[in-house]
UniProtKB/TrEMBL annotation:
Organism expressing this protein natively: Paramagnetospirillum caucaseum
GO MF annotation terms: glycosyltransferase activity
Keywords: Cell membrane, Glycosyltransferase, Membrane, Transferase, Transmembrane, Transmembrane helix
Ranges of residues in domain Glycosyltransferase 2-like: 14-175
Protein name: Glycosyltransferase
Record Pfam families: Glycos_transf_2
Membrane topology recorded in Swiss-Prot or TrEMBL: Multi-pass membrane protein
Subcellular location: Cell membrane
Record family assignment: Belongs to the glycosyltransferase 2 family. GtrB subfamily.
Lineage: Bacteria, Pseudomonadati, Pseudomonadota, Alphaproteobacteria, Rhodospirillales
């Protein structure tokens, strides 16, 4: 289809793709995605969200749009992060079914047909479960298992195993998510929280087509902690129990020292025991204050009420925007 053609509105399917420094993947992505979508024989649109990329991602997306009238580009004013870029894509989607996916082709476009088939059976959320974690080391796999275990035991929301953002959501599900006001957007938790009738398909995760991952160990750890604190207040509540336990042990130790002094007399206080007690209790206090501070910071962000993202420009296929 040429740029002179008009996209069908509203489309049946919207594919939402956050992009951050994915210039090397743009041509590879559309070379594989568009033939798959054409073969589905349903009206579709592709929404690419440029999340403040520092390379030529936007230029390559605009070049691709010249030959594809169903490509819409949301250019954010800066890098807001993948979760908020995904939120921007969902907000601008118009399809009756919406599929978020990554730009690096680790989410195979061919699996979209299976997602649509389940949706046509009446399921409102169809998530794609990877059969194995491709391109990850043992430490990353153990970290992921540990995160899921902790999240399931500390949160009221259970995350489906080995499921990322790649899934299909009905229009009513997307509208529900778009109405959710929170600024801390842990999308996997939000997708699980909304519920609705769910099904799954299994797919094989491919290797990254080009470029390098944007997540390092620190970002993954921060992302995991953000997810936990977004859906559980257990880290706050647990310190009440820890404080009670430490206070009880301290009280028993005081009683022990008093009895010992009455029986054997007062001995020279131990420097090591005092030092360890001060350092231990000081560390517990600082850790507690840090967790409280993280929750307080979230409250601060929510109270300010700033928008989730700022769109610098929306590039429509007809040249408007």
């Amino acid at each position: 289809m040429t740029a002179d053609s008009q996209p069908i509105s509203p489309p049946t399917l919207s594919v939402v793709i956050p992009c951050y420094n994915e210039g090397e993947n743009v041509a590879l992505l559309f070379g594989r995605l568009l033939p798959v979508l054409e073969g589905l024989a349903v009206p579709f649109e592709v929404i690419c969200v440029n999340d403040g990329s520092r390379d030529d991602t936007l230029d390559r997306l605009l070049e691709a749009q010249k030959g594809e009238a169903r490509l819409r580009i949301v250019d954010l004013s800066r890098n807001f992060g993948k979760e908020k870029a995904l939120s921007a894509g969902l907000f601008h989607s118009r399809g009756r079914a919406v599929v978020p996916m990554d730009a690096d082709l680790q989410h195979p476009p061919e699996a979209i047909a299976d997602l649509l088939a389940k949706w046509r059976e009446g399921f409102e959320v169809v998530f794609a479960r990877r059969d194995a974690r491709t391109g990850q080391g043992l430490s990353e796999k153990l970290f992921a298992k540990g995160f899921y275990w902790v999240f399931d035991h500390l949160s009221d929301v259970r995350l489906p195993r080995e499921v990322g953002d790649f899934r299909l959501m009905d229009r009513k599900v997307v509208d529900t998510i778009n109405r959710m006001p929170e600024r801390s957007r842990f999308m996997k938790g939000i997708f699980a929280w909304v519920g609705y009738r769910q099904a799954e398909i299994v797919y094989h995760q491919g290797e990254r087509a080009a470029g390098t991952t944007k997540f390092n160990s620190w970002k993954l750890l921060r992302f995991a902690f953000d997810g936990l604190t977004s859906f559980s207040n257990f880290p706050l509540r647990v310190w009440g129990g820890v404080g009670a336990m430490i206070s009880s042990l301290a009280f028993l130790y005081i009683v022990f020292r008093l009895i010992r002094a009455m029986i054997w007399g007062v001995d020279l206080p131990g420097y090591e025991s005092i030092l360890m007690s001060v350092l231990f209790l000081g560390g517990i206090q600082l850790l507690t204050l840090g967790i409280i501070g993280d929750y307080l910071g979230r409250v601060f962000d929510e109270v300010k009420g700033r928008p989730l993202f700022i769109v610098r420009q929306l590039y429509e296929p007809d040249g408007t925007g």
